[in-house]
Design goal:
By secondary structure, this protein is mainly alpha-helical. The chain has 2 domains: 39 residues, no CATH class; 39 residues. Helices cover 90% and strands 0% of the residues. The protein has 5 helices and no strands. The longest helix has 22 residues. 0% of the residues are buried.
Length: 81
């Protein structure tokens, strides 16, 4: 709500009078929806490295540490990119 209010305040008086309130709310709602979708993925971004590390530990325990270092190294490089 604060973001929607701040965005409305920044509009000029001319643009507020030329644009209908429904269109204005629709535009602001679209921006806020994008933020909401981005925030829904935040827990996945935090949990993904932990899940990958646990998977690599299980793989290393079954097939050996040397066979696990190559995919782990590729994963680290992809994260850095």
């Amino acid at each position: 709500m604060s973001a929607m209010y701040q965005k409305t305040i920044k509009l000029s008086m001319k643009s507020m009078t030329e644009t209908s309130s429904g269109k204005l709310i629709s535009l602001i709602n679209g921006d806020l929806f994008g933020i909401e979708i981005g925030m829904s993925f935040a827990p996945l971004v935090v949990a993904a490295p932990l899940v990958n590390l646990v998977a690599y530990v299980f793989i290393a325990s079954k097939i050996g540490i040397l066979s696990t270092l190559i995919p782990f190294g590729c994963w680290i490089i992809i994260i850095m990119i």
